[in-house]
Amino acid sequence: MRALLGYFLFLLLVLSPLLVQGQGHVLDKPVTEKCLTCICEAISGCNATAICTSPEKGTCGIFRITWGYWVDAGKLTVNGEHPDSEKAFVNCANDPHCAADLVQNYMKKFNQDCNEDGEMDCHDYARIHKLGAYGCQADMPYTFQSVFEECIEKFEDEGLE
Ligand SMILES: *[C@@H]1O[C@H](CO)[C@@H](O)[C@H](O)[C@H]1NC(C)=O
């Protein structure tokens, strides 16, 4: 009985930091809902049809997420699917919730002031999402940028900023 209790306490001590870490991973979300909406508006029109526009590279789902992005964002999966399973990436990228969590993780990891305005905000997240973590200072594609700006302005006009 004593040994069993000891074993239980041992398990608790070993596992609890993992549990806390796991929770922090999911709960710590730097990107607002408004910002997620404007990024998906700009990149896919928030079209949630499960589709990969470039099957070779990936580019799947509402946020047009690539395989490399999925890897960098921690290989999240839906319904407890194993990350090594063949469809794990496509299934997560095509699931709006899983895809949004990927964006959160990616931004948490690559947080930076891309436009050098002294703030880390949605404008930087849009750049990181569209241009990647290592080229986010580059020029933004015109269509993406104009849809994104229009979306942000709409929220500001509604006083939701
Ligand atoms: C969403 O994307 C699918 C697949 O590309 C397309 O068939 C559908 O028309 C799109 N829906 C809207 C509302 O644009």
UniProtKB/TrEMBL annotation:
Its EC number is 3.2.1.17. InterPro entries: Invert_lysozyme (IPR008597), Lysozyme-like_dom_sf (IPR023346). This is lysozyme. Residues 1-24 form the signal peptide. Disulfide bonds join 35-122, 40-46, 92-98. Gene3D superfamilies: 1.10.530.10. It comes from Drosophila suzukii. GO terms for biological process: defense response to bacterium; killing of cells of another organism. The keyword Signal applies. It catalyses: Hydrolysis of (1->4)-beta-linkages between N-acetylmuramic acid and N-acetyl-D-glucosamine residues in a peptidoglycan and between N-acetyl-D-glucosamine residues in chitodextrins. GO terms for molecular function: lysozyme activity. It is an enzyme of class 3 (hydrolase). Coiled coil: none annotated. Keywords: Antimicrobial, Bacteriolytic enzyme, Disulfide bond, Glycosidase, Hydrolase, Signal.
